[in-house]
Amino acid sequence: MGNLILETRDLSKQYKSQWALNHVNLSLQQGKIYGLIGKNGAGKTTLMRMIAGLGFPTQGSILLFGTENRSGLEAAGKRIGSLIEAPGLVAGMSAKENMRLQCLMKGIPNYEIEEKLLELVGLKDAGKKKVKNFSLGMRQRLGIATTLIGNPDLLMLDEPINGLDPAGVIEIRNLVKKLSEYENKTILVSSHNLPELYQVATDFIIIHEGEIRQVLSHEELDDRCRSYLSLEAVNANQLTAVLEEKLRTRNFQVMPDNSIRLFDFLDERERLAQVLHENDVILTKIAVCGTSLEDYFMNVIGGNKNA
Ligand code: ADP
Question: I want to staple 190 with a disulfide (CB 3.0 to 4.6 A). Which of 44, 121, 127, 270 is the partner?
C-alpha cells in the first residue's frame, strides 16, 4: 500500500436543491493516475474544486497529506496543482512570459524552474510565439506546466483532452504518464470517455449523480471487460476434462449455472469445436461474450452499484 495523499470523508456539496456531490469517500495513493470518469454533470469538476480549495463543501471533510486543520490545509494546498477551468494564460504573451507571470503570481520567481517545466511539457522551443497562435494542445500543455510551478505532489486535470485533435490527445496522454513515471506525481484526471482514460489511468473512479459508483484498478477493469467464450455442454465435467487434458488449458471458469467461461481459443473456435466433438463432448452453446469499456461504464452508472 502506497502513501495516502488524499482522503475525503462523506464529502458533499449542495447547489440550491441539488446535491452535486453526495457522501463521497475516496482515498488517493501516491504515484497513481486516477481516472475520474463520469458523464457531463456527474460532479467531476465540483469534486476537483472542493479538493483544490476553490469552493467549500456543504458537508464532510478532506484530509490532504494527512492533515485536516485549516492552517495545515493551506500548507497542504500548496502541494496541489490544478487545471480546472481554462488555464489563466495571457494570449498576447509567449509561453515563457506566461510562465514568468504565473511564477510571480505564485511567489516563486525562478528562471530555472520555468525552463525546466517548459522542457518537460515539450514547449522549450516555442520561442517568441504568442499563446494566441498556439494549438489547443500546446495551450493545454502550457496550462499543465503552470500547474507544476511549486512542484506539487498532487495534480488535478479536469477534462484536459476535451476538444483536442488526436495528436493533441496523444501529447497530453504521454505527458501525464511522464509526470507520473518520472516525477512520481499523483494525478487525478477527469473525462467523460472511459476508453480514453483507459489509455492513461492506473485506477478508475466512476462517479454518477454526485455519488462514487465504483473504484477499481486497471487490472480489475480488464478482468471485468475481458472477452471470453461462453460454452455449455450436456456434460460440463466432460467438457472441462477435455479442455484440460486435450486442449491443455485451465484458463476457464465454471459458472454456478454450469456454463463455462473460456478465455482461450477465441480466435480458434473451429479447432476448439472440432476437438470437443472428437472427444464426444456435445456442445449446446458456444458464444463470444464480453463487455466493452463503454458498456461496462454504462452498466455501472445504470444503477447497478456492484456491476
Ligand atoms: P461535471 O464536471 O462532471 O460535468 P459538475 O461538477 O460541473 O459536473 O456539475 C455537477 C452538477 O452540479 C451539475 O448538475 C451542475 O449543473 C451543478 N453545478 C455545478 N456548479 C454549479 C454552480 N456553481 N451552481 C449551481 N449548480 C452547479
Answer: 44
CATH number for the domain spanning 46: value is 3.40.50.300
Q: How far apart are CA 48 and CA 31, in angstroms?
A: 18
Residues 240, 204: one domain? no
- Within-domain flag for 302: no
Residues with Cβ within 6 A of ligand 1?
15, 18, 20, 38, 40-46
Q: Determine the distance separating the centroid of ligand 1 and the alpha carbon of 34, expressed in angstroms.
A: 20
- From CA 184, how far away is CA 237, in angstroms rounded? 49
Residue 178 to residue 175: CA distance in whole angstroms: 5
Residue with CA closest to ligand 1 atom 22:
15
Q: Do 99 and 138 contact (CB within 8 A), yes or no?
A: no
Grid-cell match 506566461, residue found: 98
Residue 295 lies in a domain: no
pLDDT in tens, the chain (307 residues): 568 999 999 999 999 989 999 999 999 999 999 999 999 999 999 999 999 988 999 999 999 887 665 566 666 667 899 999 777 899 999 999 999 998 888 888 777 888 899 999 999 888 789 999 999 889 999 999 999 998 899 999 999 998 888 888 998 999 999 999 888 899 999 999 998 899 999 999 999 999 999 999 999 999 899 899 999 999 999 999 999 999 999 999 999 999 999 999 999 999 999 999 999 999 999 999 988 899 899 989 984 444 4
**Boundaries of domain holding 102:** 4-216
Which atom, in ligand 1's list, is nearest to the CA of 47?
6
Candidate of 46, 49, 83 to mutate for ligand 1, largest count of ligand atoms within 8 Å of Cβ:
46
